[in-house]
Design a protein that fits this description.
The structure holds 2 protein chains of 2 kinds.
Chain A lengths: L7 H7 L10 H6 L3 H22 L2 E3 L5 E3 L1 H22 L7 H11 L6 E8 L8 E7 L3 E6 L4 E7 L18 H15 L3 H4 L4 E7 L3 E7 L13 E7 L4 E6 L4
Helix pairs in contact in A: 3-4
Chain B lengths: L13 H5 L7 E4 L6 E4 L6 E4 L3 H5 L7 E6 L9 E5 L7 E8 L7 E8 L3 E8 L6 E4 L6 E2 L3 E5 L10 E4 L2 E4 L1
Antiparallel strand pairs in B: 1-13, 2-5, 3-4, 4-12, 5-11, 6-9, 6-10, 6-13, 7-8, 7-11
The chains are: A alpha+beta, B mainly beta.
């Protein structure tokens, strides 16, 4: 599969004047272009990693190789995080432009006080080409993918985390499937204006996993998808007790 | 041991021509494909033909199945797999797992190897997802992300929970 993504240097140049300001003070003092500053960070990271792997604290990684440990690990992890943040800052929208995304997430969860944290900007795995998503997280372990062009939720669900949070509905808290379906339709209608008119042209699917999570999905098979993309779909998944399990919308453009 | 087959996965390296330090692109690695190795007793592996990303969504890749095993609730992985990125790049990279509709109900640990010897392990609950891509990075991108590992050990849920192994996509 080939899906070229935009080169960050082009983004950085296009965003010059905003993104550059978020780079390290080191970069600002020297007035180097954002791409060069990030390249320097990557080069420093490469050199430091090589040094620490050669002379620092390493241990068997259980995979036939070595991994860093102790102070070497701490040092390289910090350099890595700094470099990733700088690269992200060069590709991301400025923070003030992301406020609408945070409002969209709060509206989606119907919680206007929910703590939402920006994490990064990355390629959209549902699209070929250069489309991006912004990744946000709340304080309950949910991760949100936002289309920055529309400030709309592309996907929401449990994020990859350090602490898993599986759940199982108490028997007395279970809702009828009809009620879960109604909640799914209501959520999709709220997220996709005009869904009601479009619904009859979509392919509906309902399923569950272990009768714990119920999936309500509508696929658009009206046009062939690009080779490496999935047919557009919208899906709402609810736990048996009616709480949201996940949501995805690749139908909206 | 599952039969290993060549997958038509490719890395897009066009950007490297313009800038040696900055490649851009997407690599999709199929379970059972060229960049996938699995371990564990053959009897514990189960295959869902016609399921998963290559199984019934993407027409360009193979093999056309997902695979799964029951979780192991004692120490260590009995069955597991590694997807190796053939073209890690000097840029923040993001790993996503395709969670198939069936036989994906466990909370499992994915381990990402990056920057020539750093590791990030994260837990992912496969159950809330259904034929879709889910995040594996815990937060920001990872530099030179060259490997994703998944095992069957899980201390959460039930012994009847199933961990699915399907396509992994790495993007930057």
């Amino acid at each position: 599969m080939r899906s070229p993504k935009i080169l960050f240097a082009l983004v950085a140049i296009a965003m010059a004047g905003t993104a550059v300001a978020t780079l390290t003070a080191h970069a600002e003092r020297r007035m180097v272009p954002a791409a060069d500053a990030i390249r320097e960070l990557f080069a420093s990271l490469d050199a430091a990693t090589r040094r620490e792997l050669a002379d620092g604290c390493t241990e068997d990684d259980g995979q036939g190789g070595r991994r860093l440990c102790g102070n070497s690990k701490t040092k390289i992890d910090a350099m890595h995080d700094d470099a990733m943040k700088a690269a992200d800052a060069a590709a991301a929208r400025p923070p003030e432009a992301r406020s609408a995304a945070i409002l969209a997430i709060r509206a989606f969860r119907k919680n206007d006080r929910m703590a939402v944290t920006y994490r990064s900007t990355s390629p959209n795995p549902y699209k070929d080409g250069e489309e991006k998503i912004e990744i946000y997280a709340d304080d309950q372990g949910f991760e949100y993918w936002i289309d920055p062009l529309r400030d709309a939720v592309v996907q929401a669900g449990p994020g990859a985390g350090l602490h898993p949070a599986p759940r199982k509905a108490r028997p007395d808290a279970r809702l009828p499937v009809a009620e879960l379906r109604a909640r799914a339709v209501a959520l999709v209608e709220a997220q996709l204006p005009g869904f009601g008119k479009r619904r009859s042209s979509l392919h509906p699917l309902e399923d569950h996993k272990d009768k714990q999570i119920y999936f309500f999905r509508w696929d658009d098979f009206s046009q062939p998808a690009k080779e490496s993309e999935m047919p557009p779909f919208v899906q709402a998944a609810f736990n048996a007790d009616g709480t949201l399990a996940s949501f995805t919308d690749t139908l909206s453009r | 041991m599952p039969k290993l087959r060549i997958l038509a996965a490719a890395a897009t390296l066009w950007a490297a021509l313009a800038s040696p330090a900055l490649a851009a692109g997407t690599v999709t690695m199929a379970n059972g494909g060229q960049y996938f190795t699995a371990f564990g007793p053959t009897a514990y592996w189960h295959y869902d033909y016609g399921q998963g990303y290559c199984g019934h969504i993407a027409t360009w890749c193979s093999p056309r199945h997902s695979q799964w095993t029951y979780i192991n609730q004692s120490a260590g992985d009995v069955n597991g797999a590694t997807w190796r990125n053939p073209a890690p790049v000097n840029y923040p990279e993001y790993a996503r797992a395709f969670i198939p509709a069936r036989n994906a109900t466990a909370v499992v640990k994915y381990t990402l190897r990056y920057n020539n010897g750093s590791y990030q392990s994260t837990y992912v609950d496969q159950k809330p997802y259904y034929d879709q891509w889910v995040p594996l990075n815990n937060g920001a991108g990872l530099y030179l992300l060259d490997r994703v590992m998944l095992g069957d050990q899980s201390y959460w849920g039930y012994a009847s929970d199933k961990v699915a192994f399907d396509e992994i996509k790495i993007e930057n």
